[in-house]
Amino acid sequence: MSSYEESKDEPASPAVPASENQELSQESAQDLPQSTKVSVGPGKIVLLVLGVCLFVVMIGGIVFDYQAACIKKYESPDGRYTVQVLAYPKLFAGPAQGGGPGKLRLVTRDGRPLDQVPISNVDKVPPLRWQANQVNIDGLAVFELPADESRAVAK
After folding, report:
1. What is the pLDDT of residue 18?
2. How do residues 47-69 score in pLDDT, each as one tens digit?
3. pLDDT digit string (tens) for 74-93?
4. What is the SS3 assignment for the chain?
5. Tell me: the pLDDT tens digits for 124-136?
6. What number of CA atoms fall less than 13 Å from residue 18's CA on the CB side?
């Protein structure tokens, strides 16, 4: 193959010195419309960092809440509902520290959650009073039980 045929296959690149090439790129950047230039100011960076921090805290809260373990159960007289006492994991547990925060959750017989409330100390749950349409936990919560049509017809 001759040198003419080789150059025919490859596109010819203009021989531009490096200093002129830099000047051309600066001129072409100045010719761009303002909307295509990307500018990231300090305000946008702060908002981005705050958004990422908020996302991490939300995910951490969901994971922490998911790790609550059931430590006590109180079953209704008819066996259809249960109030569970759930304790959050202790991050720093010391000797004789006692119960920590948690939540009370009303669930059905098959484990479907109906309602829940936070509590400050899982060791100090007051007595529960089961009634026909609600569960009263003295000073903490009143859980309304769902209406049951089959139970009303049976009476």
Report:
1. 55
2. 989 999 999 999 887 787 777 88
3. 999 888 999 999 988 877 76
4. CCHHHHHHHCCCCCCCCHHHHHHHHHHHHHHCCHHHCCCCCHHHHHHHHHHHHHHHHHHHHHHHHHCCEEEEEEECCCCCEEEEEEECCCCCCCCCCCCCCEEEEEEECCCCEEEEEEECCCCCCCCEEECCCEEEECCCEEEECCCCHHHHHHC
5. 888 889 988 889 8
6. 0
Sign of CA dihedral 100, 118, 143, 73: negative
**Residue in 111, 113, 121 with CA at minimum distance from that of residue 143:** 113
Distances (CA, A) of 7 to 2, 3, 10, 14, 16: 9, 6, 5, 13, 18
Measured CA to CA, the distance from residue 84 to residue 137 in angstroms comes to: 12
